[in-house]
Specification:
globular; 18 strands; ten-stranded mixed beta sheet; alpha+beta; binds flavin-adenine dinucleotide
Length: about 500
């Protein structure tokens, strides 16, 4: 280790090193600096600006995931009943994000919530008798939880036209249709939020974002890590010693985790899925659609490919977005290399990768089908949600790259999963954030989980009560505590400029 350090210019020392200037690093940095302002943190970002990969507004859908509209969070069980467990967890996690953001608004850290969050109706829309029956049951099941109060269900075409006129106009087929509607959803510009958080932090003592700096190597040393970085402008090699490293590198978290060599990272692989949207910037259309309308994923489609027609509010402009259309690219980041996927193959993840591949042949076929689509095919898919959509009003917009987690499974060799996975070393000195869904919406609860796993001694010394000040529902179930739910929602919705709930049965 000493041999490695000799011959390098000078070795800087900081308490914490974060790789990547996306929403995860920005959230973690804001949290830990609020818990202990004396900590020194360096964030290294390989690109020329913050939030240019998945956290960029155009690279994701900006849905504040609450399960108000996403049908993949409420699967039907074999007996036909609806499992709402995941929906409850995701809704509670987004409430935690709202509490933290509203705390930051109150503290003047994020003075203008309108720069990153807007109230937006969330709708689920289905066609055909089987899906209508499913949606009706889903609505009834969700209504048993106070988290989903004020969600309305209808099969009436007139009502559906009021909720989403562009989805109903020109819909001539007599097939049954149904929708649920909640006006308590949101559209979030995670790029603007990331920049707001990091720019504010940069004003603080002991915090730096180093752009165009690529983390190339990690080596364990006594008391922490030696991180090797390349300045991509001057080509200079730099080193920094630190007690803790966070790999918030999006799709590149996996290769960096592999470089760290920690045993907890063995057996993980990544399956890259690229994405594409159809985008419309016509104000006369955008003004007539104020909702996120989610449908049902087609057979073999991965859950994150659920089609949806969304209003997006980005940099003060309102646009419509439809998609995502999935695709396959061997890159792990939009700005990555075609060699990313093959370079991630290791003896310890080969079997899980092969086994997960063999179990997901229909998914591969689905992705090939998606890649082969023309703009005409994509417009036809859009017309299922907006029958009168005209080709000239829409253009293709490249979305972000997701790397789905493949992990060892004793029973099946390997499994492909669509959620997020936080991998931490046993001594808590390094953590990696893998996967993408539900992603940015739940950044606060995921980063709190990281703090609990990696900073447990400091938590014992008083961080826990400070965490509770910033996120009052931390470690509490909002689903089981109506008084707390009403209190936290009232406060955060007011500070974030969102609509207030009334808790009257739908
Ligand atoms: C198509 C799509 C739709 C989505 N929709 C939603 C949605 O509606 N709602 C939602 O909540 N979430 C959504 N997500 C998920 C969400 O965007 C991600 O979970 C989130 O942005 C991940 O943030 P991050 O900070 O981990 O990664 P990123 O934002 O990708 O940031 C990682 C950063 O690390 C940098 N980096 C990588 N390697 C290095 C290195 N070696 N050295 C220095 N820097 C490095 C990269 O350049 C990048 O800037 C979506 C994602 C996609 C792709």
């Amino acid at each position: 280790m000493l041999r490695f350090m000799r011959g390098m210019s000078s070795t800087e020392k900081v308490d914490l090193v974060f790789v990547g200037a996306g929403i995860m690093s920005a959230t973690l940095a804001t949290l830990v600096k609020a818990l202990d302002p004396s900590l020194t943190i360096n964030v290294y970002e390989r690109l020329g600006d913050m939030a240019q990969e998945s956290s960029n507004a155009w690279n994701n859908a900006g849905t504040g995931h609450t399960a108000l509209c996403e049908l993949n969070y409420t699967p039907a069980k074999p007996d036909g009943s609806i499992d709402i467990w995941k929906a409850i967890k995701i809704n509670e996690h987004f409430e935690q994000s709202k509490q933290f953001w509203s705390y930051l608004v109150r503290e003047g850290v994020l003075p203008d919530p309108g720069a990153f969050i807007h109230p937006m109706s969330h709708m689920s829309f289905v066609r055909g008798a089987a899906d209508v029956a499913y949606l009706k049951k889903r609505h009834l099941a969700l209504c048993t939880s106070p988290l989903f109060s004020n969600m309305h269900y209808s099969e009436d075409r007139g009502r559906l036209t009021e909720w989403a006129p562009l989805t109903m106009e020109g819909r001539e087929s007599p097939e049954p249709v149904a929708a649920t509607h909640s006006k308590f959803g949101s559209d979030v510009d995670f790029g603007s939020l990331t920049r707001g958080l990091l720019e504010n932090m940069s004003k603080q003592e002991g915090f730096r974002v180093c752009l165009q700096h690529q983390v190339e190597h990690l080596e364990r040393i006594q008391g922490g890590w030696l991180v090797r970085i390349k300045d991509l402008v001057t080509k200079e090699d730099k080193e920094v010693r630190t007690q803790f490293v966070f790999l918030g590198a999006g799709g590149y978290a996996l290769p960096l985790l592999q470089k760290s060599g920690i045993p907890e990272g063995h057996g993980f692989g990544g399956f890259p899925v690229s994405g594409m949207w159809l985008r419309c910037d016509k104000p006369e259309l955008a003004v007539r659609h104020r909702a996120k309308v989610y449908g049902k994923a087609g057979p073999s489609a991965p859950p994150m490919s659920v089609p949806h027609l969304d209003t997006r509010v980005i940099d003060g402009q309102t646009s419509l977005l439809f998609g995502p259309f999935a695709g396959f690219s061997t890159r792990y980041l939009k700005s990555g290399s075609l060699l990313d996927f093959p370079a991630s193959l290791r003896p310890n993840n080969l079997m899980p990768m092969i086994s997960a591949g063999a179990q997901n042949v229909p998914l591969t076929q689905y992705l090939i089908g998606q890649v082969m689509q023309s703009k005409h095919d994509r417009m036809e898919a859009l017309r299922e949600y907006m029958p009168l959509a005209r080709d000239d009003d829409w253009r293709i917009q490249q979305a972000g790259q997701r790397v789905q987690v493949i992990k060892k499974c004793p029973r099946r060799g390997g499994i492909l999963q669509f959620g997020t996975e936080l991998v931490t070393a046993e001594d808590g000195s390094i953590a990696a954030m893998l996967g993408a869904s539900p992603g940015a919406s739940t950044a606060v609860s995921i980063m709190i989980e990281l703090v609990e796993q990696c900073f447990d001694q400091r938590l014992a010394k008083g961080w826990q009560s400070r965490l509770r000040e910033m996120v009052p529902s931390h470690r509490q179930s909002l689903n089981d505590d109506l008084a707390l739910l009403k209190h936290v929602r009232q406060q955060s919705n007011e500070l974030l400029g969102l609509r207030q709930h009334s808790y009257v049965a739908a």
